[in-house]
Amino acid sequence: MADIPKEMRKRMKSFVSKTSDEAIDLVVNLTGKYIDKEKRRKLKRDAEIEIGTKIEEAIAETYQIALEIAEECQQKKPNTDSFKEKFYSLTDTYFKSFMPGIPKNTHVMDHLFQVCKELKDSRFDWAYLKDTKYSKRLEGMEKLANELQEAGKIGKSWEVLNEFKDSKDFYLLLQATLQRILKHYEFLAQDFSEIRKKQVDKYLEIYDELSGVYEKFIALLFALIQLSRTEAIYRYESARKRSLSSNIFFIKENGWEILVSGFNRNIRNAIAHKTCNVDILQETVEFIDRDTTVVLTFKEAQKETRELGALLLILPHIFILIFCLQILSVKEILENLPK
């Protein structure tokens, strides 16, 4: 710590103190009334000693390694092996204390590279998805991510995703996904020998809720596709102010119809305005949206809802793909350093 400039030490102390406080607040919020004031004080002391000390040590060592790398670059020493060693040492020092369970004698980044390689190929495995366009939509999303990567825009894509994450929509979307939509997928996965009105009402309820999530999802897709076409970053907040129909039109016009197929605006409007009629005898549902009428059988209503659900499952894949490609681009840089 003595070698670190005074101002940096001061900022580090402030960071450590803030981190310790946040750690305690997290514990208290999770355990609620079971933590009394005395236990809180003890936890705070432990955090300052245990958490604070580890953070200080990690930052101090990382700082020293960073200084060595900077000095080496200034002297223009073309020692790429040394650079790789310093890179792995730096990342091991910073991350290992926060990432338990990494195999012995394995670098943090090598472990992360392998995790990302496997994670970007992950799939949801509900059986009914094989009867939807889920796989084709995922292929479309992977194609878009690869285009962004080839254009050197993965970093900017991550900025777009982070802006979405910081928007007021993200928490509502996360809450809806965790608290309700996952339960909906459990229902969508069920196969009924005969679909009755009770099930149809549930499909319409789910379609209505998924439609609200879809509008946020499509604005994010618009921003990413716009980024793939231009050098500027089209912000999520700007995309969400556009109409749903204009965002869908843009995505179709740019060759990504697979990422919007599965949503029917007439069905959404009819459900929202309560202008849909269920005929029990004919086993059909009539959706009336102004001058347009759509009639579906009970089985088709199930299929439409499943397709919309499959479309929205691409949302978590966007984050996984962009994050993994960003991490794996570091691996590519290391492998292509001059020998």
Concise description?
With about 350 residues, this protein is mostly helical.
Strand percent estimate: under 5%
Strand order of the largest sheet: 1-2-3
Low-pLDDT segments, ≥5 res: none
Q: Note the total helix count.
A: 13
* Main sheet overview: 3 strands, antiparallel
Structural class by secondary-structure content: mainly alpha
What would you say this structure looks like, in words?
By secondary structure, this protein is mainly α. The protein has 2 domains: 6-98, no CATH class; 125-332, no CATH class. 70% of the residues lie in helices and 5% in strands. It has 13 helices and 3 strands, in the order αααααααααααβββαα. It has a 3-stranded antiparallel beta sheet with strand order 1-2-3. Helix 1 (6-31) runs antiparallel to helix 2, helix 2 (37-74) packs antiparallel against helix 3 (80-95) and helix 6 crosses helix 8. The two termini are 35 Å apart. The mean pLDDT is 79.
Quick tags:
single chain, 339 residues, mainly alpha, 2 domains, three-stranded antiparallel sheet, elongated
